[in-house]
Amino acid sequence: MNTESLAQAIREIDPSVLTMTNPELRAHIRNLRDQLDFQKRELQYVRQQIKEQKQLEQDAQKRVEATKQLPMLICTVSELFEHVDEDSGEVLKSVVIKTTSRQNIFCPTAGLVPYSSIKPNDLVAVNRDTFLIYERLPQFYDARVKQMLVAERPSDSFKQVGGMDQIIKQVEEAVLLPFQKPELFDQVGIQPSKGLLLYGKPGVGKTLIARCIANACDCIFLSLCATQLIQMYIGDGSQMLQELFELAKEYVDKDTINGVPQNSPANKVRGALIYIDEIDAIGTRRFDAEQNSGREVARTLMTLLNLMDGFISNNQIKVLASTNRVDSLDPALVRSNRFDRKIECPLPNITGRVQILKIHSSKMRLSSDLNFEEVAKTCDGFSGAQLKAVCVEAGMNCLRRNGREVEMRDFMEGIGMVLNRKVAEEGYL
Ligand SMILES: Nc1ncnc2c1ncn2[C@@H]1O[C@H](COP(=O)(O)OP(=O)(O)OP(=O)(O)O)[C@@H](O)[C@H]1O
Ligand SMILES: [Mg+2]
Asked: Which of 40, 98, 139, 427 is the most exposed place for a label (fewest CB within 10 A)?
């Protein structure tokens, strides 16, 4: 020990000890030893107690696990309240739950879940006999609503859409831009529109554009056809719509859903896009419906209107809809703040038609004398879907005559065939 540490040790000695005589010192040391023994015994006792408590806790945990094995009952929390126990004066936190058989059950405690973690309308799993709450369950959604969540994005891209550059630009501006650069809207001080309606004749590519958006956007995409909302039981359609919006909201608000992080690379942008195809199925002008079915459809429409108004504070949920009967839509649906952006998808013009023909024949072996401009000129008034049909028919014609390359005459024959069908369908040329 060097002199420095020796001096330090001497400084730390209690001054009263330094003045003690030898017998006094011996007595002091004995006293200290007794104290040490006592402390050691105390420590041993506490250790033993901890061990016993741990054993007790393990036993209790096992008992809880054993009872948890039983099939549990699912209940809804209907009320939470705090009250003072008259005997002990303690503040008790109690819960009232409702079973599926509509019984109201009073639980004096929140069971195994923290009181603060549950709220009215939550689903909980309870013991069938004792109604002890075991755990809080995630929000339950109808399987039909869950199916609307597009997990696997379609592979269509804007490159496969011909002659709709202007429309694509407008759609991107109205739907994708508010998600990707919300600060731009804040700077200018405008609220991005909540709904976008695509309308146009059948087969002009409305659904195709929605599929491209689903692929291009980095947010949650929920897709449905409005006919899915027409259900057998009254109120089912409205309920599904409500659950759909709740599901969208849950995805937007939470960081994780069932343990899966929401800001994963697949969902870079926090937002949800709901796509309702063929919205005229529920969105037709309301009238004094005599029949029950008409009234039910009107009710579903009202729910949609209400939901679109309800999420006003949430700019991260957008609704995209498409229809080919815009004239029959209810005026309330298309008024400002709901589907205030309406984009018409017209029949393609000559350049559009050339592009569409090129897109759909890109994988065909084409003859060198083929002139797409000529073909497009002959297809006046054709929709994208009909132009696609022309390409398919041309290919089939080539196959029938055992040709190796698709030629101009195949296309011309194809146009004739599609035109015949068109006349039969539309009743005019
Ligand atoms: N502009 C286009 N470019 C490329 N292909 C197109 C275009 N328009 C339509 N098509 C083709 O036609 C098919 C049908 O189009 P789509 O389903 O988008 O029509 P729609 O407008 O939704 O019709 P509907 O109103 O009857 O539902 C598409 O899958 C696509 O192959
Ligand atoms: Mg469609």
From this structure: 427
- Identify residues whose C-beta is under 5 A from ligand 2, the ion: 207
CATH number at 73-137: 2.40.50.140
Count CB atoms within 10 A of the CB of residue 77.
21
For the whole model, what pTM was predicted? 0.72
Ligand positioned closest to the Cα atom of 324: 1
Query: Ligand 1, atom 29: nearest CA belongs to which residue?
Result: 208
* Helical H segments across 69-163, by residue range: 143-146
H or E segment at 62? helix 22-68
Q: What number does the ligand 1 atom closest to the CA of 210 have?
A: 18
Q: What is the pLDDT along the chain (429 residues), one digit of tens a residue?
A: 678 888 888 888 888 888 888 999 999 999 999 999 999 999 999 999 999 999 999 999 888 887 777 788 889 999 998 888 888 888 888 999 998 888 899 988 888 888 888 888 888 999 888 888 888 888 778 888 888 888 787 888 899 898 899 999 998 888 888 888 888 888 888 888 888 899 999 999 999 998 898 888 878 889 999 888 888 788 888 889 988 988 888 877 765 555 555 555 555 556 888 999 988 888 777 665 555 567 778 888 888 888 887 755 557 788 899 998 888 888 887 776 778 788 999 999 999 999 999 999 999 898 888 899 999 998 888 999 999 999 999 999 999 989 889 999 999 999 999 888 877 777 655
Is residue 283 lining ligand 1, measured as CB closer than 6 Å? no
* Sequence-ordered list of residues with C-beta below 8 angstroms from that of 215, at least 6 positions apart, any chain: 153, 154, 155, 156, 157
CATH superfamily entry for domain 145-345 = P-loop containing nucleotide triphosphate hydrolases (3.40.50.300)
Interatomic CA distance for residues 323 and 329, integer angstroms? 9
Does residue 206 have its Cβ closer than 6 Å to ligand 1?
yes
Ligand 1 lined by 195 (C-beta under 6 Å):
no
- Domain range annotation of the chain: 16-67, 73-137, 145-345, 350-426
* CATH architecture observed for domain 350-426: Orthogonal Bundle (1.10)
